[in-house]
Amino acid sequence: MKRRMLVGWLPVLMLAAPLAAQTPDTRPGIAVLPFTNGGSYGLAKEDLDALQVGVQELLLTELDLNSNLRIVERSRIRAILEEQGLVEAGRVDAASAARVGKIVGARYVVTGVFIDLNGDFRLDGRIIDVETSEIVKTERVRDRRDNLYDMLIDLATRITQGVDLPALPSEVREERMQMEIPPEAITLFSRAEVFRDGGHTDRAIELYERITQRFPDMVQAKQALVKLRGG
Predict the structure, then answer these.
(1) Contact criterion met (CB below 8 Å) for 100 and 83
(2) What is the distance between the terminal CA atoms of the chain, rounded to a whole angstrom?
């Protein structure tokens, strides 16, 4: 009798197990939209265009180091922007950004502009509350282009501070600041991201491989290679 009762309960237990595993992710979600070229001089046009997605992806990578945040992947953001007809719209306003944020389930959306005046580089970030469509904080980081990677780390830190989100542990931040990633590596990585978006996988892989050989600290290129190769 006991054995029969246990067997009878098996279907119920099998149905209940997946439901218990589907625990909702309650961490605050953040989406970062492509950064707009606000008027730059000194780099080739293709490099400046590529930085729009390169800065976006690298900023997402830095924010993703914080396990207390839920980061929306760039591929998903791009798909939503295409659906909404916003890819070629240039700078997205706060209302449009909030609409994208609601679709992807983000709490905040980050938009921004960069300006490169012959090596004098500036990053302007805006943090938008998805619920109210209001810009709750603006952050500006300015330095020489040679320090672009440090600027991205700084901006990522300021974003979480700006809206009182959990901060990245100081030891992790210090470790990132010690990495040697020159602007050339960021430019190559940005162009590789553009190739990947456009479906030019072979050209993207070629650039990622070049980066990993010349700039081993840039783990983002290694991670991208693994994804493209299905590892």
Answers:
(1) no
(2) 49
What digits encode the pLDDT tens for the residues 91-101? 688 999 999 99
Q: pLDDT tens, 183-214?
A: 999 999 999 999 999 999 999 999 999 999 99
Q: Are 40 and 114 in contact (CB under 8 A)?
A: yes
Q: How many CA atoms lie within 13 A of 223 on its CB side?
A: 9
Q: How many CB atoms lie under 10 A from the CB of residue 221?
A: 24
Of the candidates 185, 227, 179, the residue with the CA atom closest to the CA atom of residue 207: 185
Query: What does the chain come to in residues?
Result: 231
What six digits make up the tokens of 25? 């992710």
- Which pLDDT score is estimated for 108? 95
Mean pLDDT of all residues in 34-57: 91
**Three-state DSSP state, 27:** coil
Residue of 55, 221, 218 whose CA lies nearest to 141: 55
